[in-house]
Structures are given as C-alpha cells and as structure tokens.
Amino acid sequence: YGASTFGNHEFDWGQEVLAERVAEAEFPFVTANIVVNNTGDCATAGWTTPDFAEPWTTITVGAPGNQAVLGIIGVTTPETPYITIASATEGLCFKDPADSIVHHYDALDAEADAIVVLSHLGYLDGGYGYGLVVYGDQTLANKLITAGKPADLIIGGHSHTNLTAAT
Asked: What is the pTM (predicted TM-score) of this model?
C-alpha cells in the first residue's frame, strides 16, 4: 500500500492498539477529519491530527521520466464515535469530511499533480440511525466540486457497495 485511511473498525480495540498497528505499517495512515479534541468541544476543536496519523501525504507513481505525484487525503465517517465503544474515540473529534478536505486542499494541491481521497464514508448517504446527518462519497464529490476543490479520484469503503452491480 502507498497509504491508508481509518475505518470505524480500526477503533474497535482502542487508540493504543490502533497506534501500535499503525506503527507496524510500512505506509502512512491519513485522516483529514479526525482531530484531537483540544478544546473540549468538537465544534471549536482545531486541526491537530492525532499522533498516529497525518492529514495527507504524497506518493510518486510511474516510471522515471513519466512520473506523477499523487496527493492522498483520508476521511472517516463521523458516526465512528457512535458505532464503536465510547472509550475508543475518547479525546478525538470527527469533523465534517468535505470541510476537512477543503481545509487541507490548497496545501495538498500545491504538492500534487492529482488528488486522491481515501474515504470511509460509504457510497450513498445514510447511516446507522443515530440521528446524525451522514453523507456518502457521491455527496462528498459534489460538495468538493461546489467548493471549487474537486478530487480526481475517490476510493471509498464502509458501505460494502458492489459497484460492478450498480447501474
């Protein structure tokens, strides 16, 4: 792998175990929307990424003389604190995914030829019924386009949608 983002199940065993697994990886874990709750209120939390991740990274692909730099940024469903045990996400905030990408977009765009979003939002809008407004990759793409900060590619998970069967 060149990079990975977090899904909700990465938090099932808590942050200490997660950090141990990330440290064992030979690639970076990226997340733009998981931040440290440094104010006690996620509405006002800053943009400090947890120690076990970075908001984005770049990787160079292609043969010498025909290379491109991909900017890789990750987002995770904001439902994560509600669909895993509470202690697993203690001290973290899961910010709006589109807002988080937009926050980092210009710095990433300056370093990359193309922007790839690793998403764990799901394909369609939905959720697990906890009363949260949760949107999927289709809405994420539209929000980024509307903001003038489009992604070149979104690679998504979470909903287990078989896109070969989609119309």
From this structure: 0.93
